[in-house]
User: What shape does this take?
Amino acid sequence: MRYDCGRRWMMSFGVLASITTTPLPVLAQEPAKAPAQAKEGTWQPNPQLLDPLLRRKTPINYRESEVVAYKLPDVLLCEDGTRVSSPEAWERKRRPETLELFRKLVYGRTPAKPSEVRFEVVERDPKAMDGQATRKRVRITSVDAGKSFRFEASLLVPNGKSGRTPAFLLINNRPESSADPSRAEKAGFWPAEEIIARGYATAVFRTNDVDPDSKDEAARARGVRGVWPAAGGASPGPDAWATIGAWAWGASRVLDYLETDPDVDASKVAVVGHSRGGKTALWAAAQDERFAIAVSNDSGCGGAALSRRNFGEDFKAINKGFPYWFCENFHAFDDREAELPVDQHQLLALIAPRGLYVASADADFWADQRGEFLSLANAAPAYAIYGLPGFQPNEMPPLESPATRGKVGYHIRTGVHDLTPYDWQRYMDFADQLWGKRAE
Assistant: This one.
């Protein structure tokens, strides 16, 4: 669907009016923050990569000096002004409050798990990868309220291992050739051979098979939201689920299958996504606590990056380019990031105390590399109440220097906006650390 500027403004005004008929919670915020002063030896932008962007005539900010002081909502401060200080209070009170804000204002409300989810292994190859793995192609059918929706996922499990195997689930937002389960085509985006060699299983599904990544409403009607447009069978409202929510729903349905597969340890599944897939991986893990690790690779605006920094892609740009990714309410905050009652560090906090890894790329200023790290650092209070350490805002690691603190990890690598074998090796290192070294 196309909107001219006037129509988009009218739509945003209408959404804002619908939001403000019910007052939003007035949340205390942390003190105003200027851009973090980095420690010596931490990552700094490469002028050869940044200068060409600075010479462009664009409304997008790429200058750290123009990031104004901002306030972040307090991760642990409840709507009634009380502060949680224990895991029990976080899980009972503040976590549900935060999750509700993201449902209402950002990603929309995902329908509950379907009343029935069926699985059929439609193809099985026990000699995949020259005998190194077994490949299964699985049809997943969800049934609810007299309607059904099906899509497929694939699973590769290493051969010759006893017991159940931990797994990485990739949300593939690219063509099938980027993550080809048959391995007729191979790409660094999903180095399945390396994953299998490290002793992990790996599953994959394509986002377009769940909800088409298209501005064409007719195309999107063929996805899961065409079957169930809103949670609970209601008519779609401004908080109805959007495409990222649908993709996250798909990840949970694949996990439903993995729980039934005798070769997989479903208590140790890491959900991985790049770019829009990274946004999806974070939202999937925030909602579905069965995911043991969430991995965000270059997820940027609406993913790991702090919104209030207004660096790189912003709400207006993302909503113009992809008006179907986020719920209608979210559009009311174009050019008004500071008025949204949540920021992305709170999304990351929802994953505590489980594993969380955020990664960036040196040339990917559009995704705001520093904002991604700062979001992870500012999620630390949620991990701290579980007795777990986190990063400080001024200790962003330098290039190719992956770092972990307890159950959180971060790296920034040389290169562009992509998911690479280097990234995958770091994610597997992180899983080794959290899940213990496995006997090969």
